[in-house]
Amino acid sequence: MSRIHVNIGSNIGDRAALIERAVAALCEHLDPEGTAEIRLAPIVESEPWGFESDNRFLNLGVMIDTADDVNPHEILNCLQAVEREIADCPHRKADGSYADRPIDIDLIAIDDMMIDTPALRLPHPRMHLRGFVLQPIAYLDPYWRHPESGKTAREMLKEL
Q: CA 20 to 30 Å from 39, out of 6, 109, 132, 160?
């Protein structure tokens, strides 16, 4: 069994509709047989993180419990494919800084896996800095602990 944490965000366009579309696509791609348990946290609205914009983000935490063992790189590829299906636009400007975006899907954690490759780092390397990521995990999976720090999402939230 595997537990996957994903965060979906949007700060331009019909944010709620884009997030709803992303959830439907994730369910279709990651759980085509409908056997996984998929839970959604309440939507969190937040200021842009790491860049200036007048457009606030809507963020949704998703927790997927699947009976199958998963390949983290395949999960990442699936999330990136869903992003491209919804809005094939860059998340960064030419200078490397973040940009407004209709959809952003991040793989936050899979169980207690620790991965550090050029393509993927798990848990997400900046999750402990982002309340909009920690709040949904604290809601959906209050006993999950960061495999390196040993802290729960709630404990990391208190440190922000």
A: 160
